[in-house]
Amino acid sequence: MQPIKKTCLIISCLVSMAASAEVIPVYQINEAPGTYVQTTLTHDIYRYSAGTQLNDLVVTDQQGNKLPYRITAPSTQVSEQSQLSNARFFPVVVGLPPEALIALSSASIRLDANRISVSVEKTDNEKLQDQSAPVDFYVVDVSDVKTRIDKLVVDWQASDANQYLEVQVSGTNDLSSWSSITQTTLVQLQKEGQLLTRNKIAVNLGERHYAYLRLKFTRGNENLQLTKVQIENTEKIANAMVVDQWEVKGALAKDQNSAIRAGNHAATIPIAAWEFARDDVAPVTNISLNLGNTMYGDNIKVFSRNNQKQPWQLRHQGIWFNAQVGSDWQQSDAINIYNTSDTYWRVELNELVRTTLNPTLVFHRQPQTLQFIANNAAPYKIAIDDEAAPNNQHTSAQIFSQLVGGKELQWGQVVFTELKPSIDSFARTGMQVSWKTILFWGILLLAVAVLVGVAVRLMGQMKNK
Fold first, then answer.
1. What's this model's pTM, rounded to 2 decimal places?
2. Phi and psi at residue 439, in whole multiples of 5°?
C-alpha cells in the first residue's frame, strides 16, 4: 500500500501545481505617497485582460499579497476662477446733510438750450473724501455694475486700533431708505512678517439689485481709512477630462463592395473600404477618422463585429468632412458608438479615394481610475490573474468600500512603470484555452492512467497469491 500512497501524493501535488493560478504583472508602482493610492488606467490594460469588466485584474504587494481595490470613473475636477473689478467708494462724515448723499450719484440732469439732457459724470467729490471729520459710513457706488455681486473685497490701512473691523452692509436705490444685507468681521493681522487677512464680505447680490451699498463699521472705525473696495465674482469651471485615445492602422479590404445589401440578389455597390483590427477589448464611446491632409466631404459608413465569423453590423452612416480652414485642418465631430468593444472594424468611403487615402481609425474613451489600499510593502504590481473568480472585481470593491466607507480620504496620485510582459502569456491573446488548463487536464489524465495501471497491477498480484 505504501507505493500507492506515494503515487497518490505525487499526483495530488502535480495536479495542485497545475491548477494554481498564475498572476502576471503588467504595471509596477515603485513608491506610494500614502495609504490611499490611485492611478489612471488607459486602454492598454485591456490588451491583457480577458474581458471588458477587468474581472481578472489584481493588485499585489512585494510578497504577492492581493490588496483591496476598486475601479471608478474619473471624477470631474471643478476649479474656481475669480474676477475682480474696482468699485468707487465715498466716505460720509458725521452730520452730512441728505443732499450731499445725492451728490454721490453718477447721473445728473442739465437744461441746455431749452433741452433736457442726462449726463454721466465719474468725478469723485473731493469734499466727501475729507478725512478731517469722523467718518460715519462709506457708500459704494455699484450703479453701473451689470453683473451679480458675490463678494466685496475691502482693503484698509491696518493699525493696532483697527486690526478687527465689524461691519454692517446695507443697500439702497434712492440713497434714502436702506435695507440690511449682512454683518461680518474683517481681520488684518501682522506679526513677525506673517500676515493674516480676512477682508471679503459675502453679499450675494443679483444683477442690479442695488445701486449703492453702505459699509458702516461698528468696531475698529477709529481713524479708519479704506484704500480700496473691489467687487469679486467667482465662476466654477469644470476642467475638461483627459480623453484616452489611440489610433489603429487599417488595410484595404478584399471585398470592395458595400457590406450593406438590400437583399441576396441586390446589385453590389462599389466603394472604398478599409478594415481594422485592434488588439484590446476596451469599451470605446467614440470613434473618428484620421485622413491626414486630404480633402474629403462625402459619405461614410462604419461597421464592426466581434469576430470574423459574424456579419458586419452597421454602426454609423452619414457624411464625413476633412477640410482645410485657413492654415488648420478641421474634421467632423467624433462618432458616438455607445461603449462598443468589438475587435474588427470596417470603414467605407467614396470609391474615388481608394488610391489616394490611407486612413487610420481613432478610438476615444474616458480613462478609468484604479484606487487601492497600500500596506507599506512596495513595489506594488497591477497584474492579471488568469484564474480569478468571475466576480473578483465586485468582491474586491465591496471589501474596499467597507474599509473606506464614511471616511474623507486624500488620494495620492501615482504613475506606474510598464513591465511589458509577452502578450502570448495571456489566455485572451494566446490560445483560446490557456496552457495551464491543458497542463491540468494532461496531468489529470496521466494520473488516472497511473491509478488504473496500479489497480491492474494489484489485481494481478492478488491472483498470483
1. 0.59
2. -65, -40
